[in-house]
Specification:
Length: about 300
């Protein structure tokens, strides 16, 4: 991994306060915002700063990495690339890899720098390449493809799904929390579906870590979490800690129709890596797919 950080003299620092950051990253809860500021470095390059809360230490938490990537893309898109705040972003691809020997420091906040390079891939689409650095050392890389659409177009696209009865639908009973590497049933996003390798997605909107505020479709963060939990069930009891994640999104996941999570361990390739392929099926077709890789 390598960084393309420019000299400090080329940077134009930005910080507009936590309220502006919440607006840019589409979050309502202050504690959910990981970013602390950003800088423009010219030539489509930016530096974002982030802070992870103190944790027990160990491998990177996939959701923390995903949120850092997501928030970095959004703040650059809205604050620097003229993507209107009222427009809806459509995630098409989110891939990342982590340094296999990196461990998060124990019981102390982690300050990160995110090196961001953006390029337009269409009139309303963008590719973002990111490098995550801790203490100057590259510890992760990511590629994200997304587009955005105007409010009127989004309303037509969503149709009857634009308005949902938030929190009123039934939530199926979860699988045992320990089987998905979680301590509490409220953190489990999988429900039994009658056979190995298949579960129903649980959309418990009371989990504020995954559902920061009411939305009209299941957030992408929930889908990454579902993939991680499915991989843990199939490969447990050893903790499955992904060092590579690739994901693609074909359509939104709706709240009012069951979404089935299907997963399988990929035959070993002899490289000391365990891979799990996960798909989300709704309306009888694949809506998203995630492949996770962890060192054996």
């Amino acid at each position: 991994m390598s960084s393309s950080l420019l000299a400090d003299d080329d940077q134009v620092d930005r910080y507009e306060g936590i309220d502006a950051l919440k607006k840019y990253v589409h979050l309502h809860r202050e504690e959910a915002v990981l970013l602390t500021g950003w800088s423009s470095r010219g030539s489509d390059r930016y530096t974002v700063t982030a802070r992870w809360p103190a944790a027990a230490g160990g491998p990177c938490e996939p959701l923390l990495v995903t949120q850092t990537i997501r928030q970095s893309c959004l703040v650059v898109a809205h604050a620097e690339r003229s993507v209107p705040l009222a427009h809806q972003t459509l995630m098409e691809r989110l891939d990342f890899s982590l340094a296999r020997d990196y461990r998060v420091p124990r019981d102390e906040p982690v300050d990160l720098t995110v090196d961001v390079f953006c390029r337009s891939t269409g009139h309303r689409s963008m590719r973002v390449e990111l490098t995550l650095l801790h203490a100057g050392r590259p510890v992760g890389e990511s590629v994200v493809d997304f587009s955005w659409i105007a409010p009127a177009v989004y309303r037509r696209l969503r149709g009857e799904h634009l308005h949902v009865a938030w929190g009123e639908g039934p939530v199926p009973e979860p699988v045992a929390a320990h089987t998905v590497g979680r301590d509490h049933a409220s953190d489990v996003v999988l429900a039994p579906a009658g056979r190995t390798g298949r579960w129903q997605l649980r959309t418990d909107v009371g989990n504020v870590a995954l559902y920061d505020h009411p939305v009209d479709h299941v957030p992408g963060l929930v889908l990454i979490e579902a993939a991680c939990q499915a991989a843990q069930v199939l490969t447990g009891p050893t903790v499955f800690c992904p060092v590579e994640v690739t994901s693609a999104y074909a359509r939104y996941i709706e709240f009012d129709v069951p979404c089935w999570i299907e997963a399988a361990v990929v035959p070993p390739a002899g490289d000391g890596v365990t891979r799990v392929e996960v798909t989300g099926v709704q309306y009888g077709s694949t809506a998203f797919s995630v492949t996770l890789a962890s060192e054996t």
